[in-house]
Write a structure and sequence with these properties.
The chain contains 17 helices and seven strands. With about 450 residues, it is an alpha/beta fold.
Length: about 450
Amino acid sequence: MIRAAAISLGLLLAGCSLTPMSETPTRAVIAESALPPVKRFAAPAPTPPLASNANIAADFMALHFQLESGRTLPVFTRFEEPLTLRVTGRPAPSLGPDLARLLARLRDEAGIDIRQVRSEDAAITIEAVSRSDIRRALPQAACFVIPNVSGLDEFRRKRRAPQTNWANLRSRTRMAIFVPFDASPQEIRDCLHEELAQALGPLNDLYRLRESVFNDDNVHTVLTGYDMLILRITYDRNLRSGMARDEVAARLPAILARLNPGGAARPSEPVQPTPRAWIDAVQTALGPGASPAIRRDAAARALRIGAEEGWTDHRRAFGHYIAGRMLQVHDPDLAQRHYRAAMRYYDQTPGTGLHSAYVAAQLAAHAITRADGAAALALVRPQMAVARAAENAALLSTLMLLEAEALALSGQPDAARAVRLDSLGWARYGFGADWAVRAKLGEIAALNPRSEGEERL
């Protein structure tokens, strides 16, 4: 199943894919420099799931028994514990610490017995390769996971073989995850989270999920409390590989009552499937290869379908966000109306604080172009804690750089300089190479109509 290149709310992210191309679960070097050191987040603090147990059960079934292409899977599959994992290739310096942190979370929050080893017979191999190697293997992938292989060379030999087809799996014994070594620390970390989660558990992505990495909108980039619950259910003692759909469904209520007692009292929401036509429109609008006019038409089609479906949730908001991105250069005033509409729908949908933070960044950027520092500050400041909680350094540094320009516009140059300097350590984690950090700094400074000739740091 394919994850096409996608714009997560504010940042362009490449998606990932597996073999065969229509049925692969997927996602998308700290430089020595004079810039401040790379910053890292403190201990994770995921929030508990907001959904009812009935909704979580429905999500679990859709995540485990269907591929993104829509093809159904006949049986439930997982690894049997304990699990071992090794790293090969040329891992970036950031990969080791971020992987160790992720494995600790999987043990503590999902109850999965997983440890890193050096042995060649490890169940899961993470191979760090170049982005160009990944693109040669799967042209639109940022990173990907494949069953029953242990390296990129083996995948090239077996990419059309039955054992690398997810639909043929009856159990999981061996997986390979391919991540780039020449991407930003955040992109590498995001790949680790999504691809390892899909190697361990769900193979599907659902646009209807609002608090999960298992969603092609790429808003969440590290495993959430909801995701850890899905993985904990996956490895519950009352499930096993080879179970049929009805068997798993029958056991979920008792499992959820034990693992998530708070979800029993929450009211259920109607499950509103996402039409294939809407997914296709979104992928056309955000994916590679289409002309600007075709992208705008696709965005308009997604909006129309969302209205026809009667959605008032984050998918309706996402349609407006996409439309804003498509129109930002062509018709900036109309783009702002779409961003405001997106914010209204997010505001009325629980669990979409991170989504709103991305839209707030777009609205604040526009306020800065109008030299309205006060409005920009009011938009970005409430979102700082949201970006930190989500461990999204790219978003956090972007918000801080916007805050710096807003402070400069408000006649506070010293405060602006301090915030701008503080943002750079986060930018180094979020964007990686020095040139990328400096490009982001220049991009946001250029929004300020009064910035010409001003010292930035």
